[in-house]
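Colleagues,

For the teaching module next term, I've prepared a clean inverse folding example: a structure given as tokens, and then the sequence designed for it. I'd like students to try predicting residues themselves before seeing the answer, so please don't circulate the second half yet.
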């Protein structure tokens, strides 16, 4: 009987990270991602394309990956119906599909308790206590995703338009955005059809501008940090509780958090795809 392979997948709004482990060998691959809520077909396609990329890198057939036990943590999965629909659209023989919180928690915290602030294209805050994981956020950019890259990018465009109208003072960042797009009308055209990941790309460099003193960037980072603090407190965080903010955007927010929170920030144990791979092994043996 051949040894079982395990496939961990962390699919976010921008990237889809895949890890495959079998017989002591580990192969990783990063492809494009998509949020299930905003683009269910694109999400399924992104996962399959990332798996094909991993198979090509590993020198194996895609069918071998499909025989592995797969665990998928996917941004935009809200209900069991969502999970079942995505599972049916994928070629895996055995898989477990959930939202991206559990994979993030296991990856970031390992076997320890604590709080995790997930900040990518979207956002959420979660608390793990033993086997229980509670969370807030993750509702998507239309209704939420506060402090996320997409939220920051959209906020930058909004503030640039308000500065154009004289409602807010212009800063170097708002002028640069208006110049980059070629005026307010072009910003409106872009926003009409832009996906969250496209808004998110606009946030690149925003934290650096905030540290350098740009008023627009600083206001956005401070507003996002305030939401993070509220989310932590809503889940019962108290001074001394471990807080993990994985990724570059999470690290960028740390200087804007209250001192009592900053003092409790610890490095992530590992990335979400590591958590997904661990959960694949866990569910396969259940």
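(Answer key — instructors only)
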């Amino acid at each position: 009987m051949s040894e079982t392979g395990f496939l961990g997948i962390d699919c976010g709004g921008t990237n889809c990270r895949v890890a495959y482990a079998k017989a002591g060998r580990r192969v990783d691959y990063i492809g494009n991602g998509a949020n299930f809520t905003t683009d269910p077909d694109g999400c399924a396609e992104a996962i399959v394309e990332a798996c094909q990329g991993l198979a090509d890198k590993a020198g194996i057939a895609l069918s071998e990956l499909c025989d592995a036990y797969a665990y998928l943590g996917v941004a935009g999965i809200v209900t069991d119906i969502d999970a079942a629909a995505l599972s049916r659209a994928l070629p895996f023989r055995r898989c477990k599909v959930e939202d991206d919180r559990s994979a993030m928690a296991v990856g970031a915290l390992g076997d320890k308790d604590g709080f995790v602030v997930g900040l990518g294209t979207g956002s959420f805050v979660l608390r793990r206590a033993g086997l229980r994981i509670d969370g807030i956020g993750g509702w998507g950019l239309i209704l939420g995703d506060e402090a996320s890259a997409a939220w920051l990018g959209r906020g930058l465009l909004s503030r640039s338009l308000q500065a154009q109208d004289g409602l807010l003072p212009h800063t170097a960042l708002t002028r640069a955005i208006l110049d980059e797009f070629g005026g307010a009308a072009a910003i409106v055209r872009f926003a009409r059809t832009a996906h969250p990941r496209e808004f998110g790309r606009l946030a690149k460099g925003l934290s650096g501008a905030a540290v350098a003193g740009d008023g627009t960037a600083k206001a956005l980072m401070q507003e996002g940090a305030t939401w993070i603090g509220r989310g932590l407190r809503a889940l019962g965080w108290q001074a001394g509780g471990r807080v993990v903010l994985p990724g570059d955007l999470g690290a960028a927010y740390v200087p804007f958090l209250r001192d009592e929170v900053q003092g409790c920030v610890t490095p992530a144990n590992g990335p979400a795809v590591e958590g997904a791979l661990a959960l694949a092994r866990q569910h396969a043996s259940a």
